[in-house]
Amino acid sequence: MKKREIDDVTGVETTGHEWDGVKELNKPLPKWWLFTFYATIVWAVGYWIVYPAWPTFTGYTTGVLGYSQRATVADELKAAQAAQGQLRDLLEKTPLDQIRTSPDLLRFAMAGGAAAFQTNCGPCHGRGAQGFTGYPNLNDDDWLWGGSIADIHKTISFGIRSDQKDARISQMPRYGLDKLIDDGQINDAAEFVLSLTGKSTDPAAVAKGRTVFADQCASCHGPDGKGKQDQGAPDLADEIWLYGGSRQAVIESIRTGRGGMMPAWAGRLDPVTIKSLAVYVHSLGGGK
Amino acid sequence: MTHMDRYIISAGRPEAAPGVERHDVKAVNRQDDRPLYAGRQKVYPKLAHGRYRAVKWLVMAATLGIYYALPWLRWHRGPDLPGQAVLLDVAHNRFFFFFLEIWPQEFYFVTGLLVLAALVLFLVTSAAGRVWCGYTCPQTVWTDLMITVERFWQGDRNARIRLDKASWGPVKLLKKGMTHLSWLAIGLATGGALVFYFRDAPTLAGELLAGSAPAIAYLFLGIFTLTTYLLGGIAREQVCIYMCPWPRIQGAMIDHETLLVSYRTHRGEPRGPHKKGQPWEGRGDCIDCTACVAVCPTGIDIRDGSQLECIQCALCIDACNDIMGKIGRPRGLIAYDTIAGQEAAAKGSAAPLQLVRARTLLYAGLIGLVGAIMLVALINRTTLEINVLRDRNPPYVLLSDGGVRNGYTVKILNKLHEPREFSLDVRGLAQARLAIVGMDAGAAIRVTTDDLRELRVLVTVPAAELAKLESAGTSFALVVRDLASGQATTRTTQFQKPASVNGRSP
In what order do the strands lie in the sheet with B473-482? Predict the structure, then answer.
């Protein structure tokens, strides 16, 4: 047995390891530290057995506990829904116009509606419900099919020009494409429509357009152009234009006819979610 | 010898067998050369008597007293709020500290307190070394308490060593058992006191006894019982030597002018046993009685000089002074002294204590600065907080009559311990209409005690007024007025309008 080497400077035994003349001192670990380290190794082996750990060619070892984060999330969602159970039941039973009277119920409906809106309505109407050309802004006070909470609820449930039997349906004729009136008449009608908001520059065309409008448009949009919500005919005398309020855009609307499509959500979303959506959209600022 | 040398066969080396060279190489990983672990050498601290021991008893009583009793101190805040002086109300996101109540967004007060505590620690360390470690660190205090209990059941140092060497019998079993039971009881009390800081103490105490307390309370009670038992009873000095980062850090704060528990080498050496009648000339005062080693709770020899393992509890000063008194030599062979002071004394001169120096001035200055900032923040702490968030999407909404509406989220925080009513108005935006979703116009906004209310606020400027707004974004103020006191708080925000409405400038 070779004699242990003692470092002259520190008086500590060396391990015998040497790098370029520098020798490593033997500073052993404390016992408790070392055994804690071993315990963590044992723990890790136990963990491999109990929890999902190792990847395999087609998947991974699932562990004897069968734990999965996905299942945990599913359980938590179920628990969250159960915790909401009372409020959900109450929301289902409460008539639409009564929801506002209960602050707790209103807050619950608003939160649920806001979340459902982002997922289901945002893609067309925008995440801020600000709308795009052809997709109405839901923040303003102009409503195609009515802005009461009941109207909004019906629109969401059955959609617009959807294949649902209760859907809101109307059809604007394609005056230009189907050659129902000639281009001159279209131009005159457009000038008259623009005059309703003081934007026309051709009084002669307005006078002629008044007649075209009375014959062709007034049955849906009303004699004064203020629209009819039961037919989804927009108010042409206000500042809000779904397809643009320029002369060119108005002519294009008359020529090709307009009519967007919105899917029915009854059957795709549960009644409580649809109710929450109606409350949320109604609260955006323009609700009647 | 480098690694390469081992593989170079040189002439003249011994042969293991004819033609087979015997390498001059050592199996470095051989078991008997390198133990994998070092067994702990148990420390048996002897009871010291003296000035510093007395100070340590007092500090122990004070710190433990505060820790155990504080949760039971009551503080009246009104009917809707907890009546506990110090309460970390995690469930309601509040931290109650006597007159102060901290909301989560005011956590900088706690941060400031911690910064202040760290700076005080720096100052004390640079002035007088590891005072924190030696007197007030919970590890030191609880270890001291555990050793006291151990001493009560098993006797002082020599008795404990004898007991450990003795074979197991009823007496040893009883003494050891009672010691561990007492440690567990102290751990239980410690863990119990801790959970009281998080929930109304009398209520929780009742719940704990009745078995109806929240599971998390029992969990933390268990964790702290176990850790107190392990760290204070079993691990003791190992925590300071191996686990704690603080001894490594504070080397940066100690200099030649720092008061440290020191063995005065120039006075003690050469050491050696002193026989009766032998003169003291030509030798040191240290009689190598090792009383200083016997009382040391971390098991070191202070005569080796300043070292990482020394927590500077000053018990060796007491032990040595006791001995010096007995042999009739001046006290203070081991004492609080500076390195500069020792160096001067070795040369026969004296170095005056310099408490005021750049380092201590810097720390004291920082303490003053942070303290002043905290004080100003505390004095100016508002009891009403208002946050206004402008809608980003959409930035504005065009209405059918050509008017423009902006949406805002207004949050009103009532930090008073009573409900308050407010009004909300627009200032600096002519003809603007204000509406709060879900509320009737003009109704008072009620915010309950110590609560937050979030409002959705719509501000509309009619078409006729829009042209008068000079730019796309106009600053205006939302004014929240306390209806009872009339005190108004304003928040400036922006009103946005479109650059053009259907081709016209609005």
Answer: B445-447, B420-427, B473-482, B488-496
- The count of other CB atoms within 10 Å of the CB of residue B52 is 21
Contact yes or no for A84/A115 (Cβ under 8 A): no
Residue B118 reports pLDDT greater than 80? yes
Q: Which residues of B touch A29 (CB under 8 A)?
A: 36-38
Using a CB-CB cut-off of 8 Å, the residues of chain A touching B400 are 140-142, 235, 238-240
CB contact under 8 A, A16 and B26: yes
**CATH pick for A149-283 out of 3.40.50.1820, 1.10.760.10, 2.40.10.340, 3.40.50.2300:** 1.10.760.10
First to last CA, chain B: 91
C-beta atoms surrounding B85 within 10 Å: 18
Residues in chain B: 506
> Cα separation of A17 and B26, whole Å?
10
Q: What is the pLDDT of residues B96-117, one digit of tens each?
A: 888 888 888 888 888 999 999 9
Does any CB of chain B come closer than 8 Å to the CB of residue A139? Answer: yes
Residue A191: how many CA atoms within 13 Å on its side-chain side? Answer: 18
Closest residue by Cα to residue B74 from B87, B91, B65, B57: B87
Class of the B384-496 domain?
mainly beta
At B88, which helix (H) or strand (E)? strand B86-89
Question: How many Å apart are CA B375 and CA B364, to the nearest integer?
Answer: 16
**Mean predicted confidence (pLDDT) in B466-486:** 88
Count CA atoms within 13 Å of residue B86 on its CB side.
13
A123: number of Cβ within 10 Å: 10
Q: What are phi and psi of A21, to 5 degrees?
A: 85, -5
Least trusted range by pLDDT, from A43-52, B149-158, B497-506? B497-506
Show me where the domains of chain B are located: 51-106+137-250, 255-346, 384-496
Query: Cβ–Cβ of B438/A130 closer than 8 Å?
Result: no
CA quadruple A40, A43, A49, A51: dihedral sign: negative
Pick the residue with more confidence: A63 or B2?
Answer: A63
The DSSP secondary-structure symbol of A6 reads: B
Q: Say which amino acid occupies B62.
A: A
Hey, where are the domains in chain A? 149-283
pTM: 0.69
Which pair of structure tokens corresponds to residue B481?
Answer: 């007025």
Residues B360-418 have pLDDT tens digits of: 999 999 999 999 999 998 888 877 888 999 988 889 999 988 899 999 999 998 888 78
Pairing verdict, β A29-30 and B37-38: parallel
Contact status, residue B396 vs residue A284, Cβ threshold 8 Å: no
3-state class (DSSP) for residue A143? coil
Question: Distance between CA atoms of B53 and B65, rounded to whole angstroms?
Answer: 18
Q: What is the pLDDT of residue B14?
A: 59
Min distance A10 CA to chain B CA atoms (Å): 13
CA A110 vs CA A116, A117, A122, A215, B15: distances in Å: 10, 10, 15, 45, 92
Average pLDDT over residues B17-22: 59
Kindly tell me if the per-residue pLDDT of B16 is higher than 80: no
Asked if A191 contacts A207 with a C-beta cutoff of 8 angstroms, the reply is: no
pLDDT for B22 beyond 70:
no
- Asked if A28 lies within 8 A of B34 by C-beta distance, the reply is yes
Q: With bands split at pLDDT 50, 70 and 90, how would you rate the model's confidence at B353?
A: confident
**Which residues in B359-388 are b (16+ Cβ under 10 Å) and which e?**
bbeebbebbeebeeebeeeeeeeeebbbeb
